[in-house]
Amino acid sequence: MKNYRFYFYILLLFCSLFAHADTKTPLQFLQAMVSAHQTRNYEQLYLMQKGENVTSLRYRHAYTDGREYAQLLHLDELREELILRDGKVSYFGDFQPFSLRSPHILDNLPMVMYSRFAELKGYHFIDAGRSRIADRPARMIRIVPRDDFRYQYMLWIDTETHLLLRSDLLDRDNTVLEQFRVLQSTLDDELLGIVEPIEALRLPTFIETKRHQTQRLKWQPQWVPEGFKRVTQTKQRLPEMQMADEVESQLYSDGLFSFTVYVMKNQGVAFDEQFWREGKTSIYSQSLGGYDVAIIGEIPLVAARHIAQDLRARLETKTK
């Protein structure tokens, strides 16, 4: 009889553990994270590290009647504050305040918070186990590209609230290019208290970014990393750079990272490839077929070089 009781207690313990186990797939967990950041009332104190620069910030978010409100405050040195209301982000600080159209505050927050993961192509979502961040239980998920032409993420997501607690943006050598790390995370409906003062705030002048959508340009990369699609293409003059010729550009994004290809007529001085990387941003430039090409964005330099070399034949044809 004692043996039966022992096995019965073991069975109860096993069932209890199984009942509390999180059975969400990595993709479902990532989707829950995005939803949590858009619909929960919360506050996070965190550090944002880009290269050697570390910034401490406080982010408050409220959601009511289908609308998002948020405040991002820099906690060190000069006061800088960002406010989200009605699909616009307003900037306040030691400068002339202004507003830009955006559904989210993207400055000093990882883009991974707002990605449409079900639509991403070229990535694996991998369960990397359990951990603890800011005294909160976390599930670790890796977002790994299927090629060497983009970066990878390691995420720590709160297993209960689904809020992001930490993200490491890594290159293919596992060097940390950017880190978001929460020190304190609070879920509280009292944060709805930020709605009234934000609603009462008189927002600064709205700056409409110029969109020079044009007809199809005569060139375009035939190769880009899997999943990247052209978002916009433009043709414009830059009088501030004293350039008479137009600069053509195409913006590409895969929903997680983006880059822009710029093409302009060579100004008489051809140059071999030049490249530079600051954190996650790569800059690659080279003279090709009578044109100067620059590629700037959140991709490894090897990807930028591959795109530029693919453009060579098309630009040489354009020159003829």
From TrEMBL:
Start and end residues of each MucB/RseB C-terminal domain: 214-311
Gene Ontology CC terms: outer membrane-bounded periplasmic space
A GO biological-process term: regulation of polysaccharide biosynthetic process
Organism domain of life: Bacteria
Signal recorded as keyword: yes
Keywords: Periplasm, Signal
Signal peptide interval: 1-21
InterPro entries: MucB/RseB_C, MucB/RseB_C_sf, MucB/RseB_N, MucB_RseB
Transmembrane segments: none
Pfam family, one: MucB_RseB
Cellular location(s): Periplasm
Domain MucB/RseB N-terminal: 27-191
UniProt-recorded Gene Ontology molecular function terms: antisigma factor binding
Transmembrane in keyword set: no
Family: Belongs to the RseB family.
Name by which UniProt lists this protein: Negative regulator of sigmaE
Organism: Muribacter muris
